[in-house]
Amino acid sequence: MNEELAEVLAPYRGRRGSLIPILQAVQAKLGYLPEEAVAEIAQFLAISKSEVFGVATFYSQFRFTKPGRHTVKVCLGTSCYVRGVSQIMSALEQTLGIEAGQTTPDLKFNLERVACFGCCALSPIIVVDDTVCSRVTPEKAKQAISSYE
Amino acid sequence: MNRLEDAMTFEEIQSLAKVEWEAFDRSDRPRILVGAATCGRSAGALDVLQTVNDELARRGIDATVVQVGCIGLCYLEPLVDITKPGRPRICYGNVTPEIAAQLIEDYLVNDNPRPDLALGTIGEGAVEGIPGFFEQPMLKPQVRIILRHCGTIDPVNINHYIALGGYSGFAQSLKMRPEEIIEEIKRSGLRGRGGAGFPTGLKWEFCHRSTGSEKYLVCNADEGDPGAFMNRSVLEGDPHAVLEGMLIAARAIGATHGYVYCRAEYPLALERLRIAISRMKDYALLGEDILGSGFAFDIEIKEGAGAFVCGEETALMASIEGQRGMPRPRPPFPAQAGIWGKPTNINNVETLAAVAVILQRGADWYAQHGTESSKGTKTFALAGKIRRTGLIEVPLGITLREIIYDIGGGVADDKQFKAVQTGGPSGGCLSSEHLDLPVDYETLAQAGSIMGSGGIIVADEDTCIVDFARFFLTFTQAESCGKCAPCRVGTRKMLDILERVTQGEGRDGDIDKLHQLAETIRDGSLCALGGTAPNPVLTTLRYFHGEYEEHIKDKRCSALVCKNLVSYYILPDKCQGCMICLRNCPVGAIKGGKRLVHVVDQSKCTHCGTCLDVCPPRFGAVAKVSGQRIEVPEEPIPVSPSK
Lengths: 149, 643
What we know:
The complex is a heterodimer of chains A (149) and B (643).
Chain A lengths: L2 H7 L9 H12 L4 H11 L3 H10 L11 E6 L2 H5 L2 H12 L12 E6 L11 E3 L2 E3 L4 H9 L3
Parallel strand pairs in A: 1-2
Antiparallel strand pairs in A: 1-3, 3-4
Chain B lengths: L2 H4 L3 H16 L5 E5 L2 H5 L2 H15 L4 E5 L11 E4 L5 E4 L4 H13 L8 E5 L35 H6 L4 H7 L3 H11 L11 H10 L6 E6 L8 H8 L1 H15 L3 E6 L4 H16 L15 E6 L9 H8 L23 E5 H13 L1 H5 L9 E8 L5 E6 L4 H8 L9 E6 L5 E3 L10 H6 L8 E6 L4 H15 L5 H18 L7 H15 L3 H5 L2 H9 L1 H9 L12 E5 L9 H5 L5 E2 L4 E2 L1 E2 L9 H5 L7 E5 L10 E2 L5
Parallel strand pairs in B: 1-2, 6-7, 6-9, 7-8, 10-14
Antiparallel strand pairs in B: 1-3, 3-4, 4-5, 10-11, 12-13, 12-14, 15-19, 16-18, 17-20
Helix pairs in contact in B: 4-5, 7-11, 7-14, 8-9, 8-11, 10-11, 10-12, 11-14, 18-19, 19-20, 20-22
């Protein structure tokens, strides 16, 4: 087994209900869930690969393709909606030349939708990597991603 | 673990905590509190914190700096509070790094409290020119029980919580029989704060009566409703309150193992929980023999992985077991057969925080607030087009008008109120005729909405109600787990209709079809996600029927939101022929030239609105209309020479 992965999996040996925490830990390590990793996880838990995929594809957190270096998440919560987040999404889609859910060809950015960050009082919200930007306008959103390499 | 602390009695822990709290609260050094919850951070609180620390170091000032949770005035973030020894605490809002540095110079060095920048004072005493913080219009109608510590104590310091009465409710519960604890909660009238409002004491009783040596307790912190952030604020600002509630609940039902199921989108809340749990262990408040009482209980954190349906009890349990988070039919109820088939009790974050305070202060004290059937207080997240957004806590029975106008300051930007949405995607949209309704479980349900977990979103005249309903259906349709047909197929069909209507392709009979689908989904779905999914559509059909008719019959969207129903015209009397719109139009739909009045070719226009955005405000030559035609020249003509 891949040593890096073995290290991630070790603490979960013999623990019930650990599939989701394992998927989270593997994704945290590798950035996504490559097929080989899914096979390793299935073997580790002695379940089928399809069972692992079944669970992983149910939850929006998990990714199956290599992500870009930076992730731009756009909050589509109710308050952000009321305060015009759809224009911000369009502006970002236009600037990055991709649609939500896609990665730029140079692997620089992922553009993702998020149901709600819970920062509704300062909406609209976008989050670039771990930086939360509040009261965003289309201009501010474009500016927020301009400094990333 | 420190064996000495392990063996301490609760009274000893309390005295230790009090010493630490008093050293903080009555310190002879100045204290600076920075509101550094997620909302504060998004507004720049960490930069402010950095400046405060740098500035104190540069000037050699000895002061205590603490990151606290959110006091609720999100619209004024970042918030900084400064206390000088022997003076009340002064709260400052919208603090930038520059203002923070200025405040240190002006107040700490030169003793000028800067009333012009202050929001109010907290605590005994007064400062000239600064009002009392809790006398502010946004705070005066509030009763802060759940939120009492948020923004005031250091959330990662268990001693602060204990010194202010924390864990005394649990210590009290150790002296009571489980039946007595359940009775106390029943007497308090507490109902589940996650949305459904089921009486908490009764829920506990079911689980308590279930036989089995192994039982589970779950804190549902999967706050998935878009537009709600009450639970996040409590977990970030006062995590021990929730954990104390868990201990009490565990003792009442006889649980040995607890889970906090918290969504991964809340990294700070998760971090605060992890720290809090480890501090509890230091004081033997978790483990094999809690406080030497023989009671054993442990808490594990489970991170949600992004599935709204996991807020539903049976789906949440499946997710904890590591499966797809899909609900299952009830019975058996979780209290009979839950996680791994063992009796399980699930309570919301706020319910558990209320439990702790009920055991600390007594059921009667708690029940003095609220109405006959809805006792106590409720936290609400005020957001959308409202002037003062934030987190509030009010006694149940308060009217929507008091919440929106007195506390929230009314609609933002002097716009016209249109609707208030409560209960998230499971709730409904109410109109101005409902503003005087009291907020309690029954009244909101009668109006077709629900109390829900506590999100209150205000929509103004710029929100299209049909598009608003489409927004909610998009969400529930995407989050439907797909297990039962009414929800899986029904929400898709409803969404198809709403999409057509908002695209200007509504047909006769669409409204009837929406009604039929809504009823089938409501009655036939397996869980509450499907059962409540039609609420946003049903309430908007009921209270804003005219807007649906207008979209379907007149192909008009009076809020000018639905793209296909709006048109853009360039007004000949205002256009200066500057060519900016012509150059920016992405589809080449604008004809014109230098000093020629431009014309939009309606057959080419994609209604993107770029021309309106780029037309210089001093000209204001682009008009956006729906359902009407403005007479303009068909071909460019010279700009009139008089201009």
